[in-house]
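Subject: Phosphogluconate dehydratase

B.,
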Amino acid sequence: MTLHPTIAEVTDRIRERSRTHRAAYLARIDAAAGHGPHRATLSCGNLAHGFAACGAGDKAALRGGHAPNLGIVTAYNDMLSAHQPLERFPFLLKQAARSVGATAQVAGGVPAMCDGVTQGRTGMELSLFSREVIALSTAVALSHDMFDAALYLGVCDKIVPGLLIGALSFGHLPAIFVPAGPMSSGLPNDEKSRVRQRYAEGKATREELLEAEAASYHGPGTCTFYGTANSNQMLMELMGLHLPGASFINPDDPLRDALTAQAARRAAAITALGDDYRPVGRIIDERAIVNGVVGLHATGGSTNHLLHLIAIAAAAGIDLRLEDFEALSHAVPLLARVYPNGSADVNHFHAAGGLAYLIGELLDAGLVHGDVETIAGPGLARYRVEARLDAQRQLDYVPATGRSGDPTVLRPVAEPFRADGGLRMLRGPLGSAAIKVSAVPEDRFVIEAPCRVFAEQHEVKQAFERGELDRDVIVVVRFQGPRANGMPELHQLTPTLSVLQKRGHRVALVTDGRMSGASGQVPAAIHVSPEAACGGAIARLRDGDVLRLDAHAGTLEVQVDVADWNAREAASADLSTNQFGMGRELFTVFRNAAAAADAGGGIFGLVP
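Prediction pasted inline below.
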């Protein structure tokens, strides 16, 4: 199928814009690849330290220096449901590596925090920057120069982007991402949402709310809604870093163990020691990045990836910008309805055909680059298959059926849920912002109302409880960007604003902070840049100013007399309370160095 002209045009634009940075990156990783295993150049003392704790067989293989040695970088902890299954993975990976004459060692661990636990809490102010910490920790883990490829064990919000940024700094090494899978389906998402809204209105008790939440988040595995964690899994598969079909197999399924073991065998096969060398820095190129953005639009994925994909691309010497997301969104139809953009969860999505069906549809429509390299081999068509266990309980692949098992969840390109991906850029006197409208009712694409300005999300809830927001209103929450307080997720606003909208009011959110994959049905202009803490125009807003958010026109207007607007001083806020406690004092350097949200919100950026 001929590549869609918009996909080709955007890819060419990114490639041309990135030419200098990408060439420098590739030169660095080519130089790092060198000749043969790096550990062969270690002194005897260095090498002996590297295998001192190994068993006799692994020690002999490492002494010989010619068998592949796989580094395992793991985000395991047993507090978080998504990462608890990873406890067993190193044992499975080491066994599988030995079965093909290779070795594997746990190179290091990275932190894994959960936005679901820290939501609305002080700890959330560390969340975005945990991505940078994970990237740094990954680099430390691989710095011993003992490895020929790496296996990355991580699932959730900042963990996979952080691991990939770290992996790309070792871009000469092959990389395979090894997911744990989603938990089985629990309380239906629409029922959970109803209880949350009833609680926000004071009509449900805390015990009722806790019971609903516990019935939804009930076992090992990723949360089943389509937030950042499950968007991560989609991205890793569409960008060719998962084994085909690996994303959405439940942790307790024997197929999950088979896929985990195969990841080690495949990693051993694609090192520079063999004849199918597949370094991650070559796999993640402009085409793979565009494929990831297309997948995000086609599935209605998390808005957090407006930050993460820009940061990931930069780590590979690629200059991805928000206008690229917007241009691709106009060309890519929405093919999936998964909560919060529908009532189904990711298990229903997978049962309906999942990524194998979706990738097939995108390939046939020319909406993704099929000629990419992947860890499975050349060509994205390798991913239009379903993973199964054969009669001998061995991993096998069968062609995808080519049809959706549930058109209320997953549809073909010819009959999409929407003709576009639902992402818009908004521009105006406040700067730039993003809005995801894939779940927003059509009659809410344009909201014009007086604004009410807040500096903290808990102030919104307090004003709601006092009855001050029971009207048409655009809620502005500012001083929530990376420089102000680390850009915590503002997901706690969703139930409150949803209640107001259900009461018939015309409601929207404008913020220099971020929402999440769970942003939902209330129109939300997020990631406003420049942020208030950097003197952005959002800091000039006052209570009662009339704002007009127009997702059709792509504008965010302030209906204030121009002379008055230009004469206003930017408001300030006391940010001293964001500087200490819960470890925040350790992150001062991150806040001071953070890029704007439209540049990824991180501390690394494009390396010259």
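The mean pLDDT is 93.

T.
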